[in-house]
Amino acid sequence: MTQTELMIMLVKCAVVLMGLLSVVPIMLIVERRGSALMQNRLGPNRIGPFGFLQFTADMLKFVFKEDLTPAHVNKFYYILAPWVTLVPAFMTFAVIPFASSLVIEGNSVHFQLANLDVGVLYCFAIGSLGVYGIIMAGWASNNKYSLLGSLRSSAQMISYELTLGLSILGLVMVFQSLKLSDITAGQGEVLFTLPLLNWTIPKWGIFIQPVGFILFLVSVFAETNRLPFDLPEGESELIAGYHLEYGSMKFALFMMAEFVNMTVASALIATLFFGGWQLLPFFGDLVHLLGGADWVRVLFEAASFLIKVAFFMWFFVWVRWTVPRFRFDQLMNLGWRVLFPLGLINIFVTGLVIYKGVH
Amino acid sequence: MLATRKPGFLNRFYLVEIIQGLAITLRNLLFHKKVTLQFPEQRRDYSPRYRGQHYIKAVNGVENCTACMLCPTVCPAECIHIVAGEREDKEKYPVKFEIDVLRCCFCGMCEEACPKDAIKLSNIYEMSQEKRSVYVKDFLVEQRGNKP
Predict the structure, then answer these.
(1) Residue range A296-300: average pLDDT?
(2) How far apart are CA A217 and CA A204, in angstroms?
(3) Where in chain B are the domains?
(4) Is the ipTM above a cut-off of 0.90?
(5) B60: helix, coil or strand?
(6) What are phi and psi of A186, to 5 degrees?
(7) Given this model, what pLDDT does residue A297 score?
(8) CB-based contact (8 Å) between A212 and chain B?
């Protein structure tokens, strides 16, 4: 690895890490104001324009609170748990491509931290590590509500990981690759052209795997512990579930992990089903208008990716304040008796279609 | 026996319902009037009968009160303390007029009992203070929040 390559790698790491960290304050204000506006309130609007600096107040509050460790907890695991939840959340983003490649001083730069051959598997492997943090937190808290929360989360996450895996298999079968860069590049192809309007429909995942998309969306909500599947928290029944005994920065770490998990989930949805960094409609014309230089194209690709991710982040918030929480048996019923068979059927049908030679 | 309701075919998927729900929340977000009152800038209109902070009505800088002791008598919370005195023109007046506002229950009976239209409850409702002081006479004769 030459020095330029190393530099490029470090810059990419910094960009991704800073990007993920800066998502947290943005989502904090989006979540608070979004929920308020949906409930016909105004929400925090005093600090900064439209209240966009509210996160400074929130973060200061977290920082200045007493960092209390209750006497009845298992100290080692209690302190370790928030980190075990947070770190895997950041790690998953490493394999997600956020733009195509660019040639800088003879080095072809791929805008992706690690182009793993098993990108999809890596995502799920690391993603499933997050549950250990929650189980640890619940167990170490030495509190029945926390324990119930972490019990629920382990059952829920394991059940929905199955569907998550199955929902993606159809896509992997179509694109013949587990590399996320290949899947994204494959989605740039034209699926078919609408005859009258001369609109081209790209080969985005949602058009070739609509059922897979719905399955993925539902199980990703369960994986990130967001409403309607936030049973591990369940503040009306378990007070706050697994992070009941946590305060100040330790709680902030859990919250950061949730938002980063949301980002990664949105990025995965965008990459797998909405063409990742493939340009949004009319962006191609804009690039041509601006001269079509490589760096302009990359900029617009990154912008497309960002817009797609931002939409799904908003979608997470939107769903959260729309749908009420499921009961635990309903959750399990949905997971095992609806989504799991649907995933299997989806794979079967996809296999049949591919076998028949329709692409 | 519980009535069992059979959901329709589309409803059983639950997805249609969720999309309808999302439309409702989006409609609320975009179009509905927000009920929040932006407090220091906007204020709610209270009725003129609202009983808030006390004041003693004064005409030309002289309070209407003649220290007749009707208000401390009628006060159910016993929070009004008056010490009567005599002016040079032989008129009775309150030397001390204190209201222990922490005890006051804002019933407005002092206002009703007053024959001289002196003690009044204004429309002011922001009465938080940093210490537990009583309202003294100098404070009370400032004509704040006059009622129409």
Answers:
(1) 81
(2) 15
(3) 54-140
(4) no
(5) coil
(6) -60, -30
(7) 79
(8) no
Question: Peptide bond before B76: cis, by omega within 30 degrees of 0?
Answer: no
Percent of chain A having pLDDT more than 90?
A: 1
Structure tokens at A148: 């119930």
Is A319's Cβ below 8 Å from some Cβ in B? yes
Give the number of A-B residue pairs with CB atoms closer than 8 Å: 35
The angle subtended at Cα A39 by Cα A34 and Cα A40, nearest 5°, is: 100
Q: Per residue in B62-97, pLDDT tens?
A: 888 888 889 899 999 988 999 988 888 888 888 888
* Residues recorded for chain B: 148
Q: What residue in A sits closest to B33 (Cα-Cα)?
A: A40
Exposure of A262 by Cβ count < 10 A (0-12 exposed, 13-18 middle, 19+ buried)?
Answer: buried
The residue of chain A nearest to residue B20, with distances taken between CA atoms, is A322
Nearest CB to A37 within list B15, B29, B38: B29
State which amino acid sits at residue A216.
Answer: F
The Cα–Cα gap between A250 and A85 comes to 11
CATH number of B54-140: 3.30.70.3270
φ/ψ region of A323 (left if φ > 0, alpha if ψ in -120 to 50, else beta) reads: beta
pTM exceeding the 0.95 threshold for the entire prediction: no
**What's the token pair of residue A196?**
């009258």
